[in-house]
Amino acid sequence: MSNTCEYFNHVPKEWDAFYSHENRLAYWINRILRRGLYERYRLTFEYCGDLNGVTVLDIGCGTGRYSIECAKRGAAHVTGIDFAPLMIDFSRALAKEMKVDDRCEFVCGDFLRCSFNRSFDIILALGFFDYIKEPLPIFKKIAQLRPRKFVASFPKFHPVWSIQRWMRYYLIKRCPIYNYSKDRLEKLYKEAGFKEYNVIPCGIGYFVFAGNE
Question: Is residue 18 predicted with pLDDT exceeding 60?
Fold first, then answer.
């Protein structure tokens, strides 16, 4: 995990550029090359629906773009958690710039070791499980928090994309990365105790809705 944390500590601005419109050329290039990323963003907020008054937990929040968008759409309180300190610093600054810092709380830490003093209507884990070797304990803790909705994304193996991604992340940046199959996801959700879940192909990966509604 330390290599992953070190990697993400060095890339807040680079990572945030995927969502930022400030560099319009880079943004539109990413829109073409990373269609799955923008599709999962659209699907997330389509599935979450009306966010007025809800509480949200964003696991692996990165630069806080999902957290901040939830607040902008009316969420009463959003907690973002990430293990990279500089990602958290970036999130806090961005929330202040967007004038939603009164409803966004960003925590630097390990989700499995954190205690939460509130319940959450919605839990997000987007672009998070890519870097998790043993996901079942995380699934079980999320299930124990009993969100109404749990939204997550997972990469799947693709002969071209996955190999170049492995070379780019693991060989060059020493950041381990993991893929998932539909069968494995269904097993994880069942073992964690989720009775309702929907695994949807999304770009070069899966997008999964689950919950307790």
Answer: no
Q: What is the pLDDT of residues 147-160, one digit of tens each?
A: 999 999 999 866 54
Question: Is the CB of residue 202 less than 8 Å from the CB of residue 39?
Answer: yes
Q: Which residue shows structure tokens 């079980």?
A: 140
Q: What is the CATH number of domain 2-211?
A: 3.40.50.150
**Residue 79: left if φ>0, alpha if ψ -120 to 50, beta else—which one?**
beta
- What integer pLDDT is reported at residue 140 of this predicted model? 97
Does the global pTM surpass 0.70? yes
SS3 track for 103-134: CEEEEECCHHHCCCCCCCCEEEECCCHHHCCC
